[in-house]
C-alpha cells in the first residue's frame, strides 16, 4: 500500500472578516491596503491533511503534504501559514499582482504538478471566498479522470477505500472511492489549528519551490471577461420607534392605517 | 422570576452563533465581540446575562449601615407630572410612582455584576442637553436625589441608585455630532454607545482611543465620567489626555459648554478634567469632544504561554524594547482565569498544554511587512531565550477576535456561577501577581474555596493590563457571602496601601470603594476633593452615598 502524497492548493484572499468594497471603476473588489489571509476552506484542507498524518488514519501513512499557491508575490505569506500548520514544503506559481487566474488554468497547473510530484490525493477547499467559483476540485478530477468527493464533512479510510461524507441539501451523502482522488473540504470537516510559535519557526526552514505557469506548459489565457462588479442593493433597514405614539405615526406614514 | 429575564436581555450584547453551516460564511455587518456565553446553556442561565437569574439583593439589605439621607425629598405624583410635561414623550419617563412598573424599572435599578440594587421608582430619559438642564434644576430646587446613568456597565455600583434616587438615563442622547477627518476630532453625545462610535470611526480610517470589553453596551459619557482605562491605554493614553472638551450640566441646571475642538488651549484652569473621573458627582456630561487617532491597518496578535511571573516580566521588557512603537496591548491572564473561561464557553484553548501564565500581545502599525518582521524577531528571541514556553500567532481576523475572546471574555465568564468580588488595583509591577497568590492562600485556609455548592468561592483569579501595572483580582463565587467579603476586605486594601498602590486603578470608587479611599489618598487630598464637591453640588443631590 503506497503512502499518501497530498497536494493542498491554498489561496490568498481578502480576510473573511473584512467587508469587501467595490472599486470606483466597478471592475473589481478593492484590494489595496486590505487585510488578506488564507481562504478559510483551504485552512480546513491543510488541517485535515495534517490530522490524517497525526492520527495515522491511513494505513500507508502520509509521505508528503505539499502546499501550492498560484498568485501574486504576497502569496508566500499564505504558504508560510500552511507550512506552520504542518505542510512539509510548498510550490509557488507566481503571477502578476492583480492578474486573475481562472479555475480551468488552476486545474491545468494542478494536473501538471500532480504528474510531476506523483500526487495521489488533491485536497482543496470547496470554493474560494473571493470568486466563489467552486470549480477547481471538480476540474482537476475531470482532467485527471479521478473520482471527486466534494463538500466533505468527514473523511475516513478503510478496507473498501476512502469514505467521504458529503454535505448535501437536507443532510449528508456518503461516497467511497479508491485512490487517487480529489476531495474538496467543507466547514464541518474540522476546526483548523492556530499556527504555533515552534511551528512558525520550523516553517521558516521549509522549502518553497518557485515555478512559472509557462514552465509547466499552461496558458493563463482568460476565457471570461468581467464586465461589471456592483454591490448588492443595501438592505432597507427597519426603523426603530420610541413608543406607541411613534409606532402609530410610522404606520400612518406608511399608509398602513 | 421569569419576567426578569426580558428587561435584562435588553441590556445584553448580541450573540454570534459560531455553529458551522454548509453555506459559505459572510461577515455580519456589525460584529459584536464573540459572546462567551456557551450555545448549549445547560445551567439554565438566561442567555447573555451575567450570573444566574436569581433576584439581586437590595443594596440597602446587603449594607444596612448605609442610611437614606432624610434631607432628600420623597418623590410625589406632582414631581412625576412635572417630568412628564417637561419631557413630553411617553418613552422618556418610566413611571413607577403612580403605577407598578417594577419590571420595566428593574434593568435601571440593578447593576451589571448583579451585586447592587436600588429602590428607584422613576427613570427619566431626556432627549437633549436642555432637558437634562431642566431636570437637574428642578431636582436641585426640590431636593430630589439623582443618579446619572449611561450603559450601566460600571463595576463599582456607581451607576444604580441605593434608595429612591431618580435615575437619569442618557441613552436617548446618542448622536454623533461631528467628525473632522483631517484632525481626527470627534464630537459626540454622551449617550452614544462605544462600539457604535468606533464603528463609525472605523469607516473613516480612525479609531476611538478607548477600548474595553463592555464596548457593546457602555456609553461615552459614562466612559469619561469614570475615566475608563481599557485595553489600549498603553498605546493611546488616558482620557485625561485624549478628551479635548466637555459639555456638561451642573446640579443647578447651568449648562457648561467647554466643548472645545482645539488640541491646545492654555487659557485658564482646565476644569473639564474635574468632570473626567468625577463619576457623576458634580454634574452630568452631555457631550464630549475627543481626539481620535488613525486606525492601524496592520494588527497582529500573539498569545503566549509562560512558566512564571518572572518570565512574564522579562517578556514585557523584551516586548517594550523590540516592539516599542507598534505595541498596542500587553495583557496578562493566569491559568485559573482561562480554566473558568473554558468551563463557561467550552471553546478549544489556543495552546495545547496548560501554562501558569498567559500573555496576549497586540501590535498595531501602518505597515504590515515591517510589523510582521518586528514581531517575528521578537517571538524568535523570547522563544530562544526560553522566556516564553509556547505560543500561537493569529493568521487572520477571525483568529484575532477569538484570541481576544480569551481575555475580554473573562469578566462575563467569572460571573457565571452567581457573583464576583472584583478588585482593580495598581501595584508595582514586580509584585503584581503576589497579591493573587496571597489572596488564594487566605481563602483556601478559610475553607471557602471548593467544587461543591457549600463552598461559596469557585476560584481566585488574576488578570489585567500588565502594560499599565494594573491587576484585576477577581474572586468568582456562587453567591455573595459576608464570610468571603470578610476575608477579602480590608485585607486587599491594606496590602495595597502598604505598597502605595491604588485601590481602584480604573474602575473608580462608586459605592464599592467609597469607604476605602483613605488607603490611596491622604486626608489633605480628600478634604480638597470634598471642597470641590461642596462647591459644585451644595445640596448633594448628584449620585449621593458614593465616591467621596
From TrEMBL, chain A:
Cofactor(s), by name: FAD; AMP
Cited SMART domains: ETF
Entry annotated with the keyword Electron transport: yes
Localization annotation: Mitochondrion matrix
A GO cellular component entry from the record: mitochondrial matrix
SUPFAM superfamilies: Adenine nucleotide alpha hydrolases-like (SSF52402)
Cofactor binding note of this UniProt entry: Binds 1 FAD per dimer. Binds 1 AMP per subunit.
Limits of the Electron transfer flavoprotein alpha/beta-subunit N-terminal domain: 26-220
GO biological process: amino acid catabolic process; fatty acid beta-oxidation using acyl-CoA dehydrogenase
Keywords: Electron transport, Mitochondrion, Transport
A Pfam family that the UniProt record links to this protein: ETF
GO molecular function, a single term: electron transfer activity
Main location (coarse class): mitochondrion
CDD domains named among the record's database cross-references: ETF_beta
Functional note: The electron transfer flavoprotein serves as a specific electron acceptor for several dehydrogenases, including five acyl-CoA dehydrogenases, glutaryl-CoA and sarcosine dehydrogenase. It transfers the electrons to the main mitochondrial respiratory chain via ETF-ubiquinone oxidoreductase (ETF dehydrogenase).
Protein family: Belongs to the ETF beta-subunit/FixA family.
Assembly and interaction partners: Heterodimer of an alpha and a beta subunit.
Protein name listed in UniProt: Probable electron transfer flavoprotein subunit beta
Organism: Hyaloscypha bicolor E
TrEMBL record, chain B:
Keyword terms, alphabetized: FAD, Flavoprotein, Metal-binding, Mitochondrion, Oxidoreductase, Transit peptide, Zinc
EC number of the protein: 1.1.99.39
UniProt-annotated location(s): Mitochondrion
GO biological process assignments: malate metabolic process
Keyword Oxidoreductase assigned: yes
InterPro entries: FAD-bd_oxidored_4_C, FAD-bd_PCMH, FAD-bd_PCMH-like_sf, FAD-bd_PCMH_sub1, FAD-bd_PCMH_sub2, FAD-linked_Oxase-like_C, FAD-oxidored/transferase_4, Oxid_FAD_bind_N
Primary enzyme class: oxidoreductase
Obligatory cofactor(s): FAD
Pfam families in the record: FAD-oxidase_C, FAD_binding_4
Known catalytic reactions: (R)-malate + A = oxaloacetate + AH2; (R)-lactate + 2 Fe(III)-[cytochrome c] = 2 Fe(II)-[cytochrome c] + pyruvate + 2 H(+)
Xref: PROSITE patterns: FAD_PCMH
Coarse class of the protein's main subcellular location: mitochondrion
GO cellular-component term (any): mitochondrion
GO MF term set: (R)-2-hydroxyglutarate dehydrogenase activity; D-lactate dehydrogenase (cytochrome) activity; FAD binding; metal ion binding
Domain FAD-binding PCMH-type: 116-295
Family, per entry: Belongs to the FAD-binding oxidoreductase/transferase type 4 family.
Task of the protein: Catalyzes the oxidation of D-2-hydroxyglutarate (D-2-HG) to alpha-ketoglutarate. Also catalyzes the oxidation of other D-2-hydroxyacids, such as D-malate (D-MAL) and D-lactate (D-LAC). Exhibits high activities towards D-2-HG and D-MAL but a very weak activity towards D-LAC.
Protein name: D-2-hydroxyglutarate dehydrogenase, mitochondrial
Record organism: Hyaloscypha bicolor E
Amino acid at each position: 500500500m503506497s503512502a499518501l502524497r497530498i497536494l493542498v492548493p491554498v489561496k490568498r484572499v481578502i480576510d473573511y472578516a473584512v467587508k469587501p468594497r467595490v472599486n470606483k471603476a466597478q471592475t473589481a473588489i478593492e484590494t489595496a491596503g486590505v487585510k488578506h489571509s488564507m481562504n478559510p476552506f483551504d485552512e480546513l484542507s491543510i488541517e485535515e491533511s495534517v490530522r490524517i498524518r497525526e492520527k495515522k488514519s491511513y494505513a500507508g501513512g502520509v509521505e508528503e503534504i505539499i502546499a501550492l499557491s498560484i498568485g501574486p508575490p504576497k502569496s508566500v505569506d499564505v504558504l508560510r501559514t500552511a507550512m506552520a500548520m504542518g505542510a512539509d514544503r510548498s510550490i509557488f506559481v507566481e503571477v502578476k499582482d492583480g492578474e486573475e487566474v481562472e479555475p480551468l488554468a488552476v486545474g491545468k497547473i494542478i494536473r501538471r504538478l500532480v504528474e510531476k510530484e506523483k500526487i495521489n490525493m488533491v485536497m482543496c477547499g470547496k470554493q474560494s471566498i473571493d470568486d466563489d467559483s467552486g470549480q477547481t476540485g471538480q476540474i482537476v478530477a475531470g482532467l485527471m479522470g479521478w473520482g471527486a468527493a466534494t463538500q466533505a464533512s468527514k473523511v475516513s479510510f478503510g478496507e473498501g477505500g476512502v469514505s467521504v461524507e458529503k454535505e448535501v441539501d437536507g443532510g449528508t451523502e456518503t461516497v467511497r472511492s479508491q485512490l487517487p482522488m480529489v476531495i474538496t473540504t467543507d466547514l464541518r470537516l474540522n476546526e483548523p489549528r492556530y499556527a504555533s510559535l515552534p511551528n512558525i519557526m520550523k516553517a521558516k526552514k521549509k522549502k518553497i519551490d518557485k515555478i512559472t505557469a509557462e514552465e509547466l506548459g499552461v496558458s493563463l489565457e482568460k476565457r471570461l471577461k468581467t464586465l461589471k462588479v456592483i454591490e448588492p442593493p443595501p438592505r432597507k433597514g427597519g426603523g426603530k420607534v420610541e413608543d406607541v405614539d411613534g409606532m402609530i405615526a410610522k404606520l400612518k406614514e406608511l399608509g398602513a392605517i | 422570576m421569569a419576567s426578569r429575564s426580558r428587561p435584562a436581555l435588553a441590556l445584553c450584547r448580541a450573540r454570534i452563533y459560531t455553529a458551522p453551516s454548509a453555506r459559505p460564511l459572510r461577515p455580519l455587518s456589525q460584529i459584536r465581540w464573540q459572546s462567551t456565553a456557551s450555545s448549549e446553556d445547560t445551567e439554565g442561565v438566561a442567555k447573555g446575562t451575567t450570573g444566574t437569574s436569581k433576584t439581586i439583593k437590595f443594596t440597602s439589605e446587603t449594607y444596612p449601615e448605609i442610611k437614606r439621607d432624610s434631607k432628600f425629598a420623597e418623590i410625589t405624583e406632582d414631581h412625576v407630572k412635572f417630568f412628564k410635561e417637561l419631557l413630553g414623550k411617553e418613552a422618556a419617563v418610566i413611571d413607577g410612582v403612580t403605577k407598578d412598573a417594577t419590571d420595566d424599572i428593574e434593568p435601571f435599578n440593578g447593576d451589571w455584576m448583579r451585586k447592587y440594587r436600588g429602590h428607584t421608582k422613576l427613570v427619566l430619559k431626556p432627549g437633549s442637553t436642555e432637558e437634562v438642564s431642566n431636570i437637574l434644576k428642578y431636582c436641585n430646587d426640590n431636593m430630589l436625589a439623582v443618579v446619572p446613568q449611561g450603559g450601566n456597565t460600571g463595576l463599582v455600583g456607581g451607576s444604580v441608585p441605593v434608595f429612591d434616587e431618580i435615575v437619569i438615563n442618557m441613552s436617548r442622547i446618542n448622536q454623533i455630532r461631528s467628525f473632522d477627518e483631517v484632525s481626527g476630532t470627534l464630537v459626540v453625545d454622551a449617550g452614544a454607545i462605544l462600539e457604535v462610535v468606533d464603528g463609525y470611526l472605523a469607516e473613516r480610517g480612525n479609531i476611538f482611543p478607548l477600548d474595553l470589553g463592555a464596548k457593546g453596551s457602555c456609553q461615552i459619557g459614562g466612559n469619561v465620567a469614570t475615566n475608563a482605562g481599557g485595553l489600549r491605554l498603553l498605546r493611546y493614553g488616558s482620557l485625561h489626555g485624549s478628551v479635548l472638551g466637555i459639555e456638561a450640566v451642573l446640579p443647578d441646571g447651568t449648562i457648561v459648554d467647554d466643548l472645545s475642538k482645539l488640541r491646545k488651549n492654555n487659557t485658564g484652569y482646565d476644569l473639564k478634567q474635574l468632570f473626567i473621573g468625577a463619576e457623576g458627582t458634580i454634574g452630568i456630561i452631555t457631550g464630549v469632544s475627543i481626539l481620535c487617532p488613525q486606525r492601524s491597518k496592520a494588527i497582529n496578535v500573539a498569545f503566549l504561554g509562560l512558566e512564571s511571573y518572572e518570565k512574564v516580566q522579562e517578556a514585557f521588557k523584551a516586548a517594550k524594547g523590540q516592539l516599542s512603537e507598534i505595541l498596542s496591548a500587553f495583557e496578562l491572564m493566569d491559568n485559573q482565569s482561562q480554566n473558568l473561561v473554558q468551563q463557561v464557553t467550552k471553546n478549544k484553548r489556543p495552546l495545547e498544554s496548560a501554562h501558569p501564565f498567559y500573555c496576549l500581545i497586540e501590535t498595531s502599525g501602518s505597515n504590515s511587512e515591517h510589523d510582521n518582521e518586528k514581531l517575528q524577531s521578537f517571538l524568535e528571541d523570547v522563544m530562544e531565550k526560553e522566556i516564553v514556553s509556547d505560543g500561537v500567532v493569529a493568521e487572520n481576523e477571525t483568529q484575532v477576535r477569538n484570541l481576544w475572546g480569551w481575555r475580554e471574555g473573562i469578566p462575563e465568564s467569572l460571573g457565571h456561577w452567581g457573583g464576583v468580588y472584583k478588585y482593580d488595583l495598581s501595584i508595582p509591577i514586580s509584585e503584581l501577581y503576589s497579591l493573587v497568590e496571597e489572596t488564594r492562600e487566605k481563602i483556601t485556609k478559610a475553607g471557602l474555596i471548593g467544587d461543591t455548592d457549600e463552598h461559596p468561592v469557585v476560584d481566585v483569579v488574576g488578570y489585567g493590563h500588565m502594560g499599565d501595572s494594573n491587576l484585576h483580582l477577581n474572586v468568582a463565587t456562587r453567591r455573595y457571602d459576608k464570610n468571603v467579603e470578610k476575608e477579602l476586605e480590608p485585607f486587599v486594601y491594606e496590602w495595597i496601601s502598604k505598597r502605595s498602590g491604588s485601590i481602584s486603578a480604573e474602575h473608580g470608587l462608586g459605592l464599592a470603594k467609597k469607604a476605602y479611599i483613605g488607603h490611596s489618598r491622604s486626608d489633605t487630598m480628600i478634604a480638597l476633593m470634598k471642597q470641590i464637591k461642596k462647591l459644585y453640588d451644595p445640596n448633594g443631590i448628584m449620585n449621593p452615598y458614593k465616591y467621596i
